[in-house]
Write a structure and sequence with these properties.
This protein has about 350 residues and is an alpha/beta fold. It is built from 13 helices and eleven strands. The chain binds pyridoxal-5'-phosphate (PLP).
């Protein structure tokens, strides 16, 4: 892979903004008169660490990826946007993605005026690497994959992903937002074998911290350096860095939550499959499942009237009459089942 050939020329030649907190490094200074901050109201008066050194060290303990190969963003969404801005020339380049999948890849592509080429999944929502490759051309810079995939819940087959990684000479983004719920080996652990791979993780799902907005991208040092160059200097606020450190300290608790969710997933899916309105429950490796029902949109509105919100995916490709249901607490899951048992077509 030739990285320079993939990166937009203006980004390759960019000299990044150098912020005060970056120019001054370590040492024993105690008087900070360099950044036009207020001397009052500590600690919020100070700009946060632009490269989140302490937080990345904590992430490394858990994810096993060195700091130099880690980018932290305002949600995974920032990482998705940066990938487009680093690699795709607006109006010229394109990206390819599986379909259906997470909606942000398409939205971010369109915001950046980058052509988005969706490629349908096959039977059982399987990745068809030949179809994906056939949709690429000389201007395809990025392929977006998601495993476990949202909204289908399944993981993508390793042999098919490997074919793409081997035969596509651009960037492959593998979104592993739900890998904490999956028994399948994540690609994050195999980053060193693939110089063109970017893996996305988030604190929004298993780590129970969607409110703080912290996403992660793991890739080669060279790719991470490009993303750091383009991001806003202080993209992760101090409160977010603090809360992220706090939740990463609670790994044992988080793993217990994941186990609870997984056992509830088994129970809820089995009970859901027995409902008269259920046509099919699709296998999942995530903290949600997709189910085909008798009449998705009617059932969706019925549930809203019961005070229960699920996701109606029935207008999404391959998801006709399908609802996506997140696993809640045992009480919440029972509320859903009770309401659906009372549903009259
Ligand atoms: C929920 C989700 C995310 C999380 O995005 P954040 O911006 O980190 O909250 C990322 N990717 C997928 C596929 C998701 O479903």
């Amino acid at each position: 892979m030739n990285l320079q050939a993939l990166v937009r020329p203006n980004i390759w030649h960019l000299s990044p903004y150098s912020c005060a907190r970056q120019e001054y490094s370590a040492g024993n200074a105690t008087v900070f008169l360099d950044a036009n901050e207020s001397p009052y109201n500590p600690p919020l008066n100070r700009y946060p660490d632009p490269l989140q050194h302490r937080l990345k060290q904590a992430v490394e303990q858990i994810k096993g990826i060195p700091e130099a190969c880690t980018f932290l963003g305002n949600g995974s969404d920032e990482a998705i946007d940066l990938v487009l801005r680093v690699f795709c020339e607006p109006g010229v380049d394109n990206v390819v993605a599986i379909s259906p999948t997470y909606g942000m890849y398409e939205v971010c592509a369109h915001i950046n005026n980058v052509e988005y080429r969706p490629v349908s999944l096959g039977a059982g929502f399987s990745l068809q690497s030949e179809r994906v490759l056939a949709a690429t051309d000389d201007h395809t810079k990025v392929i977006f994959l998601c495993s476990p995939n949202n909204p289908t819940g399944n993981t993508l087959e390793r042999v098919e992903v490997d074919k793409l990684l081997a035969r596509f000479s651009g960037i492959v983004v593998m979104d592993e937002a739900y890998s904490d719920f999956s028994s399948v080996r994540p690609y994050r652990l195999d980053l060193q074998a693939y110089p063109n791979l970017i893996v996305l993780n988030t604190l929004s799902k298993a780590w129970a911290s969607a409110a703080i907005r912290l996403g992660m991208a793991f890739a080669s040092e060279e790719i991470i350096e490009l993303m750091n160059r383009v991001k806003y200097p202080y993209n992760i606020s101090l409160p977010t860095q603090k809360e992220a450190l706090a939740i990463l300290q609670k790994e044992v608790q988080v793993k217990e939550w994941v186990q609870l969710i997984l056992s509830e997933r088994t129970r809820l899916m089995a009970a859901f499959a027995r409902l008269p309105l259920c046509r099919e429950v699709f296998p999942t490796e995530a903290n949600f499942f997709l189910a085909r029902v008798s009449e998705a949109t009617k059932i969706y509105h019925y549930l809203i009237a019961c005070g229960i919100v699920v996701r109606d995916r029935s207008r999404v490709e391959l998801c006709a009459d399908s609802l996506r249901i997140t696993i809640g607490t045992p009480l919440e899951n029972d509320a859903l089942l009770d309401a659906l048992r009372k549903y009259e077509a």
